Amino acid sequence: MPLTVMEAEAVQAELRQLLDLTGPGPRRPARVAGVDVAYDGDRLAAAVTVLDGTTLEVVEEVAVDGRASFGYVPGLLAFREVPSLLEALGRLSAPPDLVVCDGYGLAHPRRFGLACHLGVLTGLPTVGVGKTAFVGVHAEPAAERGSWTDLTLDGDVVGRVLRTRDGVKPVFVSVGHRVDLDTACHNVLNLTPRYRLPETTRTADRLSRRRLAENRRTGLVESAQHDETR
DNA sequence: GCGACAG
DNA sequence: ATCTTGTCGC
Prior knowledge:
It comes from Streptosporangium longisporum. The chain is an alpha+beta fold. It has helices spanning 5-16, 78-90, 114-122, 181-190, 199-218, and strands at 31-40, 43-52, 58-67, 98-102, 126-130, 148-153, 156-162, 171-177.
């Protein structure tokens, strides 16, 4: 029972009322999860990797197969990825203390991006880390790691453009659920000791792609999974 | 009205 | 997201 664009926007407005922006959120999370989805046509693999918040070692992984039941529509990305991500998160042995999402949170046309959506549905603290500009205006942050500038939309500060490596293109950080912007950026910097992107998104990205490749090679796919609605 | 537009 | 070769740099 696929949603239309109008219905999806109505759902966002409804879930938006459950969003908790009071923060502050965990500053020293013991377990931090990264989530990502890889695609092969309408087939997909959703992955969750949980890292030790101190050592950044991967302590748990879950990958699930699925199908994209909603096309990519800017502003409605969550409807494409959230279903599978919920399934993957649900299979963890224990919930993480923080979830780092690929994409935006509050920095969204209707202030309810993927990170907010996943946060409200799981009740977990979430932050969004985008790799490219989506909405809002901003100045270029200084070249040093840790420098940042406001990401503004309609006069509101909805996120930060944060430099995670000296002289390297910055990332776009916005809060999702139950975390404030300072805490979100603090965590993103802790998760980027060496590369531009947080270790959480790097490990989740690799896991989702690895899963797709295995499926492609094995040909088993999800025949033993949920069959289509017949 | 015409583009731009997270992943 | 994904399609794709070589190339620059640590």
